[in-house]
# Entry
Amino acid sequence: MHGIRLAIALLALPLTAAVAPAQQSPTEKDTSVEPPHVTMGKRVLGMRNQAKRVSTLVVAADAASYADAIGHWTLERRFPVLIDDGTPGARHNIARFIHGYQPEQILYYATEADEPSQESIYQSISSAWGAAENQPVPDRWAELEFVPPGVIFASLDDPAWTAALALSADRGQPIVWIDHRPRSLDIVEPQAEAIEWRRSLREAVGSLGYAWSGLGDAIDSVTVCLTMPTKVKIGDKIMAMTDFLARHDDARSWAACGMIFGSESEAAYRAMSALFLQPRSVWFFDGYAGDFGSEYAMDRAAGFFRQAGFDRVLADPRPNAGRRIWRMRQRAGVDAGLVFVNTRGHALWFDLAGDRAYGHDVPFLRQPAAVHFIHSFSAQVPGNPDSISARWLDQGAFVYYGSADEPGLAAFLTPTQVSGRVLTGIPMGFAFRYDSTDVIWKVNYFGDPLFTLGNIPKPISEPIELEGAVNLTERMRSTLRDQNFADGIASLVMLGEHANVVRISKSLLGSRPESLTPDVAETALLSHLYERDYAGLAALYERLPADRRTAARNTTMLWHALRPEIDRVTPEQLSLLRLTIRKESADEDAALIAPSLQRVFGENAVRSMYAQLIREADNDQMREKLQRAMP
# Structure
């Protein structure tokens, strides 16, 4: 991949200094035993249940504190750790995780530890497995008669290393460190370079000393914690990178593969969600009309989850009201830990029973969710913030399964098949895909491929000793008493106390507006959306500088809030909508606000709006639509 050199740095560290016990070769396996993906699900759940989950969340102030906190894990107990990097996105994700995990205690932790290195990360993994001083982790695994279920590829020059640390420390997966700097998710990797990199990855896995070359071996999963191309060109076809990497040159699959990318806080969130959460709610939306793809209908799949005793099963089966129902569900956020959608369209838009929806119609999630999206091209450009896959990941998904190119409907298992496999305890990296091992295709899996549903004991109530950590609730109260509203509101957002965020924000708007800096206002926006305080959201949005107003997440919140109120918006709110019309839906946005714009500002304002949009249109098709609509 453009000269990426596999360093296999862990071979220089104790983590891979020893060879694991001999494993059966694929030819020695008893063909009468259960399928390897079923066995892997049992392995994952067995590993998870060996270490108790503690009902405490640690919010780390930075990546160094995050790595240090994981170093306090033990074989007997583990607790989730997330990173507050100061961004609204990180704080929203922390709130989602808290809503999904429901911890009894939340600690805020900042340490003076040095920047993480391979050595310090290794020490955190070693501590989590109870290794003696200077004892190689593979020796400790052998001592415990433990065999790793998968392998991880990461680089300290890529921020997604935080996911690698969490997955390795909890699941016992060796990390292969490579020389890699983040590259665009959206480019297509040439075939020759991708094949060479895949060969190097196989060589690296083989050097670890575990059986790996066939499904059912010790190593049956690969997690690529790197920001890298998500597509590869094979002949004249575009294929999914995660369906390409864990294969031999004859295309035989030897593992399930997933990819985790993003900032340090985002990658940690996606890994920790997979390790600690067990969703109990699911949303099905069937976007097909008529009898198209009848075998992909959602009814029976939803029934499976009801029979399984899920707390909430929200199903919108066909025929439905399409986009109207979708936007009704979406307006104040969707509270579901699993999401299944059928639709068709392109990277930036999707059809719902004949109505067009856009990437900016993807809902904000109230809890972390695994999303299965049957659709063409939804994951074609995950680096484009307006694309469907990017929106889901930015707005709360920790697993996303979607297509990198036109795959054909048959490339997806039906919702009934997927639901049955997931509820059987098959890891999602296997459950979402066909069992055929010799066809490379076009659907990508973003997230931990070993995320598995199962019967998991509830987290235990047990204190965590972490020197210097403070209770986040007490920290919030202290900062508010000191009238440090920036830190106080940030803490409230992370705690998920959205009603209190709204109450304090509205009070400050009236009495101390100078305290609502752009940072504070941006952090508080989503709380106002969740609490349906749409006027307050618009008031905070007005306080953002121009560059933050046009950020995809913020613009989306504004439109989610005000679009249904278009006949009642104030002139100020109408002006905000006018200035934030989205290019991909410019014709629809303009048509929506044009009547109100004419009523409030006159016909010239409408003509001026259309003239500007025509000048700024980035394709002829949109330009023609706007020209036809211009009064």
The chain is about 40% helix and 15% strand. The longest strand covers residues 397-403.
